[in-house]
Design a protein that fits this description.
This protein is an alpha/beta fold. It has helices spanning about 10-25, 30-40, 40-45, 65-75, 90-105, 120-130, 150-160, 180-190, 200-210, 235-245, 250-255, 255-265, and strands at about 55-60, 80-90, 110-115, 135-140, 160-175, 215-220, 225, 270-275, 280, 285-290. It has a single domain (about 10-290), classed as Vaccinia Virus protein VP39 (Rossmann fold, 3-Layer(aba) Sandwich). A hairpin with a 2-residue loop joins strand 8 and strand 9 (about 280). The model has no long low-confidence stretch (mean pLDDT about 90). InterPro entries: HHMT-like, SAM-dependent_MTases_sf.
């Protein structure tokens, strides 16, 4: 049953504001960068198979900071190659930010950007309707499988687009993170399945195991300062709570019982640790790397 609460993604401006605060308070992007610079290059070595042109799809690309880090590593591994980069992002503001970022980097002239203001599901429908036959050498889906109705079907579709030696990289919250604990207990109350899924890397690995799909997986340690969430009426705390629960105006619209239960769990050692008077939430991520279907 879908949650009666309003999903945060219904208010894009509020979502983007809370997301930016989340990035400021967490080590999310830093742990991704560590993975991109230390683990990803070896994976990118095998793609392309000597071709002079590579096709890349970024699904849920946001403002592009992490995308461009990955494209930089791809360029280092294949410096003579040109790239066609399909950007899939439903937020007008995020797409605008991405375009501004690209305009500031003339060294990206080896990349042709195609901007798709659409969700992953809309992109899939568009791809099928136009009978596209192009294959992708590298696809990445970062923190976006929460926003499709059927994460497994979405993975299967994008995996089917991979070229020989292609790679699909998925990044989600870890099942061992505070998010995993929160969703395990309050999935029914918080998750509006018409819009968002409380899905973790563990759920995706279970799906892939059930289909006999082989993959590599990595854990990325990450944390987030959520101290203000426990200060009644604190503006930043309210935004962080909205982001953590994916609920618009959570403190104002959730029942007192649900709010008290969520705050208690967020502070519990299963989700957070205390450090120098701060409450530090476990924001660990999981990375899943899938090859082309054999």
């Amino acid at each position: 049953m879908a949650s009666p609460l309003t999903s945060l993604v219904n208010d894009d401006r509020k979502y983007q504001t809370s997301f930016q605060l989340f990035l400021e308070r967490s080590s999310e992007h830093q742990c991704m960068r560590d993975f991109i610079h230390n683990k990803l290059p070896d994976m990118l070595s095998s793609i392309g198979d000597g071709k002079s042109h590579l096709n890349v799809i970024g699904v849920g690309s946001g403002a592009g900071e992490i995308d461009l880090e990955m494209l930089s590593e791809l360029h280092k591994r294949h410096p003579e190659v040109t790239v066609d980069n399909e950007v899939v992002e439903p937020s007008s503001q995020q797409l605008h930010n991405y375009k501004v970022l690209v305009s500031q980097k003339p060294e990206l002239n080896y990349i042709k950007f195609t901007w798709n203001k659409m969700t992953a599901s809309e992109f899939e429908e568009h791809w099928k309707q136009t009978k596209m036959t192009k294959k992708a050498d590298f696809i990445h889906m970062i923190q976006m499988l929460y926003y499709v109705k059927d994460p497994g079907a979405t993975i299967s579709f994008f995996q089917s687009l991979l070229n020989k030696n292609g790679k699909l990289i998925i990044i989600l919250v870890s099942e061992k993170s505070g998010w995993g604990k929160l969703w395990r207990k309050y999935r029914n109350q918080l998750c509006n399945t018409e819009i968002s899924q409380c899905v973790t890397a563990g759920d995706i690995k279970s799906f892939l195991d059930s289909k006999g799909v082989s993959y590599q997986s990595f854990d990325l340690p990450s944390q987030m300062d959520i101290t203000e969430c426990f200060i009644e009426g604190d503006e930043k705390g309210e935004l962080l709570l909205d982001f953590l629960t994916e609920v618009l105006d959570f403190s104002k619209t959730a029942s007192q019982e649900l709010k008290a239960g969520v705050l208690e769990l967020l502070r519990h050692p299963d989700c957070s640790v205390g450090s120098e008077g701060r409450v530090i939430f476990n924001n660990n991520l999981g990375v899943i790397v899938i090859d082309k279907t054999t």
